[in-house]
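Preliminary data (for renewal application), adenosine-5'-triphosphate complex.
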Amino acid sequence: MTQQAIEITGLRKTYAGQKGAGPKEALKGIDLSIPAGSIFGLLGPNGAGKSTLINILAGLVTKTGGHVGIWGFDQDINPRQSRAAIGVMPQELNMDPFFTPRGALEVQAGLYGVPKSQRRTDQILEMIGLSDKADAYARTLSGGMRRRLLLGKALVHAPHVLVLDEPTAGVDIELRQMLWSNVRKLNEQGMTIILTTHYLEEAEQMCDEIAIIDHGRVIIRDKTSALLGRLDAKTLLFRLETPLPELALPEQVRQEIRSDGRLSVTYRRSVTTAGEILSAVSAAGGIVLDVTSEDPDLEDVFLSLTAGTHA
Ligand SMILES: Nc1ncnc2c1ncn2[C@@H]1O[C@H](COP(=O)(O)OP(=O)(O)OP(=O)(O)O)[C@@H](O)[C@H]1O
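Predicted structure:
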């Protein structure tokens, strides 16, 4: 049996009401196990409860009910061991401006009780590409460098599980690639990775398995490939000689003009055939210069699962 890096059962969190508002039930009974050695994606719309879940794992938010096991340690019974098993790279970039990267890593290692002889400060600095900035004040570091330092800080105690909360939100392509190559390397060395991201394409490329959280509940959890296979949606893309008025197509078929001018028609293979769509295009007098097809991506899965649940 695969060892579970994380085992969560019946996890609930209710925040006390703020400014006259009633209590907020952010997690409504989450059951989730994350296999050791995997790269696991945690997705969901804003306010779904992802940060609450991560903060509970990190020991920063107290749960209202349920059980959390990290690397086999129950958070309530073995709080120290479960905390030592996990490292979290947070979203926010605020850090003490007077620390140098080396200083920040040393302090963090101290907080986790890593003895001096076991610290890997230079190795971590090299991995995150900050060796040449090791002794520069944090306030002189760029946003990208600070983010890399946050990754480094999450690694000082060599955790079994690394959690990345929106690690690539707003970062440039170069940094994104560096982060992902680091994450892949760490995963190859056996580290379990949990990440939240708004970039579905990224989750599709990086994650072995994905859970989608919505309104404090896990609404789906599956292997990434299986999740994509669940939808029988298909898109046909037409390059036409001249634009057409809206086609007469069944209601569930979505048509739009892409920014490159191509007509995109998305339909469900179990309901509509490609032939019907081609007929509608030619009935409208369309002259097709080129046609290609696209399979559904995670965004389609996501939209179809969370559609209609938001105000
Ligand atoms: N400290 C708090 N007090 C009261 N309500 C809170 C608190 N923190 C979060 N919430 C509420 O709990 C719900 C879940 O929030 P959470 O931040 O976990 O969602 P999220 O999925 O991480 O969203 P995002 O992607 O925007 O970070 C939201 O409705 C949020 O307003």
